[in-house]
C-alpha cells in the first residue's frame, strides 16, 4: 500500500501524509476529545463505504433491473444505503455502550492531560531482558519480603503472648494442685488426731 498508516497513543492520526506527519497534527489536535475523534472516524468510514458502493456500481450489478425500472432501482439503492448506514451506526453504538468506550476514552484524555505536568522520563526497556526483569521484579520481591517479615514479627509476638498465657495457666494449675494437696494433708492430719483422741478416751458407750 502506498499510504503509510500508523497508530498513536493520542488516537488522532490514522493516515500519514507524504512527509510522514499526521494531517491533524498541530497545536489544537491534542485537545480534541478521543470520543469526537472516534465519531469522526466512524463518519469517515461510512462516507468511504458509501463511495465504494456507488450507484454506478450498484446498477452495474443489476443492469437488467436498471434497464427495466431505473426509478425503482434508484429507490432500492437509496433504501439499501440508508439501512447500511443505520446498521453500521447502531453496531458502533452497541460496541461503545458494551465497552463503555466513552467513559474509557474520557478517562484516557484526563490521564494524558494530567501527565503533561510530569517532566520525568518514563521507564523504557534497556534492551537487556535480564536487567529489565531484575529492575522490575527486585523492588516487588523486596516489598514482599518486608511484608513477610512484618507478618513473621507479628506472629512471633502472638506466639510469645500465647506461650506466656500457657505458662501462667500451668503455674495456676500447679498452685491449685498444691492447695489441694495441702488441704488433703490437713484433712488427713485431722482424721489422725480424731482417731488418736478416740483411742485415748475410748469408744463412747
Automatic annotation (TrEMBL):
Primary site of residence: nucleus
UniProt region (Disordered), positions on chain: 1-28
Biased composition (Basic and acidic residues): 7-18
Domain of life from the UniProt record: Eukaryota
Subcellular location: Chromosome, Centromere, Kinetochore; Nucleus
Residues forming coiled coils: 145-193
GO biological process: cell division; chromosome segregation
UniProt xrefs under InterPro entries: PMF1/Nnf1 (IPR007128)
Cellular component GO terms held in the UniProt record: MIS12/MIND type complex; nucleus
Record's keyword terms, sorted: Cell cycle, Cell division, Centromere, Chromosome, Coiled coil, Kinetochore, Mitosis, Nucleus
Pfam families: Nnf1
Name by which UniProt lists this protein: Polyamine-modulated factor 1 isoform X2
Name of the gene: PMF1
Amino acid at each position: 500500500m502506498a499510504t503509510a498508516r500508523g497508530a498513536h497513543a493520542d488516537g488522532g492520526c490514522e493516515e500519514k501524509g507524504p512527509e510522514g506527519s499526521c494531517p491533524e497534527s498541530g497545536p489544537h489536535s491534542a485537545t480534541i476529545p478521543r470520543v469526537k475523534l472516534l465519531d469522526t472516524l466512524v463518519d469517515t468510514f461510512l462516507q468511504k463505504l458509501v463511495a465504494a458502493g456507488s450507484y454506478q456500481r450498484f446498477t452495474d450489478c443489476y443492469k437488467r433491473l436498471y434497464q427495466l425500472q431505473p426509478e425503482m432501482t434508484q429507490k432500492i439503492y437509496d433504501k439499501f444505503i440508508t439501512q447500511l448506514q443505520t446498521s453500521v451506526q447502531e453496531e458502533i453504538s452497541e460496541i461503545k455502550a458494551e465497552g463503555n468506550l466513552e467513559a474509557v476514552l474520557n478517562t484516557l484524555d484526563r490521564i494524558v492531560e494530567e501527565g503533561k505536568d510530569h517532566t520525568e522520563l518514563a521507564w523504557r526497556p534497556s534492551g537487556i531482558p535480564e536487567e529489565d526483569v531484575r529492575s522490575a521484579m527486585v523492588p516487588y520481591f523486596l516489598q514482599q519480603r518486608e511484608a513477610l517479615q512484618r507478618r513473621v514479627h507479628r506472629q512471633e509476638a502472638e506466639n510469645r503472648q500465647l506461650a506466656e498465657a500457657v505458662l501462667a495457666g500451668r503455674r495456676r494449675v500447679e498452685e491449685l494442685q498444691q492447695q489441694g494437696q495441702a488441704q488433703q494433708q490437713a484433712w488427713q492430719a485431722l482424721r489422725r488426731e480424731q482417731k488418736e483422741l478416740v483411742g485415748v478416751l475410748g469408744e463412747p458407750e
